[in-house]
C-alpha cells in the first residue's frame, strides 16, 4: 500500500476512506524532485476481484485494491495473460480511480519498478492486461524478472539511486 498512499500524500487533497474523510492539505508535488514507486498496486490487485472485495478491508471497493470484476466481456479473470475480449473502461476502487485520474504529478521525475515474479501482486504484475505497478505518466520504468515483492525493494538500491540522483534507468 506504500506506493498508492505515498502518491496520495504527495497529490494532497481530500482522502475518503471507509473510516472517514480527512484533508491532506495542498499538493507537495512542487517539492518532490523524484518519486520512485516500487511494486505498487496502482490499478488494484487481481487477488481482490470477486467476493474478496466484500470481505477483505485491503480489497474493498472504496479505498482498497479492488481491480474491478470485469473489463468489457472479460469477467473475474483480471490476471489472465491474454484478454479474450477487448478491454477498456475498467472501474477500479474509488480511491484508485481518483488517484489515477488526478492530473497532479507526484514529482518532476516519476519512476516505476516491479518484478514479474512478485509474490504479493502475482500475475506478472498484470491487471486487465496492464502492469499495475506502472504509475500513470511515469518518466521511465524498470522491470525485474525474478525478484519477490520484498526483493524488489531490498535488492535494487543501485537502480533506485540512479533514478533519484541521475534521473535514469540503467
What does this structure look like?
It holds the Pfam family Lipase_2. InterPro entries: AB_hydrolase_fold, Lipase_EstA/Esterase_EstB. One of its GO terms (biological process) is lipid catabolic process. One of its GO terms (molecular function) is lipase activity. A hairpin with a 2-residue loop joins β7 and β8. This protein has one domain (2-166). The chain has a three-stranded parallel beta sheet. Strands 1-2 form a two-stranded antiparallel ribbon. The protein is built from five helices and nine strands. By secondary structure, the protein is α/β, with parallel strands linked by helices. The radius of gyration is 16 Å and the shape is globular. Helix content is 22%, strand content 19%.
Q: Which terms would index this structure?
A:
single chain, 170 residues, alpha/beta, 9 strands
Unreliable segments (pLDDT under 50, ≥5 consecutive)?
Answer: none
User: How many domain units?
Assistant: 1
The largest beta-sheet arranges its strands as 3-6-9
> Approximately how much helix is present in the residues?
10-25%
Count of DSSP E strands? Answer: 9
Largest sheet: 3 strands, parallel
- What is the approximate shape? globular
What's the overall average pLDDT, rounded? 96
Order of helices and strands: HEEEHEEHEEEEHH
Number of continuous helical runs = 5
Rg is 16 Å
**What distance separates the N and C termini?**
26 Å
GO molecular function, one term: lipase activity
Amino acid at each position: 500500500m506504500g506506493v498508492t498512499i505515498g502518491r496520495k500524500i504527495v497529490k494532497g487533497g481530500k482522502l475518503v476512506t471507509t473510516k472517514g474523510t480527512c484533508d491532506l492539505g495542498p499538493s507537495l508535488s512542487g517539492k518532490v524532485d523524484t518519486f520512485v514507486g516500487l511494486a505498487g498496486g496502482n490499478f488494484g490487485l487481481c487477488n481482490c476481484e470477486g467476493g474478496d472485495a466484500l470481505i477483505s478491508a485491503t480489497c474493498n471497493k472504496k479505498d482498497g485494491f479492488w481491480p474491478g470484476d470485469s473489463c468489457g466481456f472479460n469477467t473475474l479473470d483480471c490476471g489472465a495473460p491474454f484478454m479474450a475480449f477487448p478491454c477498456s473502461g475498467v472501474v477500479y476502487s474509488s480511491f484508485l480511480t481518483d488517484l489515477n485520474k488526478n492530473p497532479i504529478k507526484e514529482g518532476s521525475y516519476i519512476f516505476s519498478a516491479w518484478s514479474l515474479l512478485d509474490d504479493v501482486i502475482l500475475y506478472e504484475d498484470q491487471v486487465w492486461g496492464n502492469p499495475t505497478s506502472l504509475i500513470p505518466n511515469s518518466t521511465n520504468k524498470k522491470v525485474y524478472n525474478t525478484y519477490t515483492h520484498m526483493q524488489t525493494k531490498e535488492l535494487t538500491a543501485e537502480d533506485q539511486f540512479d533514478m533519484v540522483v541521475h534521473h535514469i534507468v540503467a
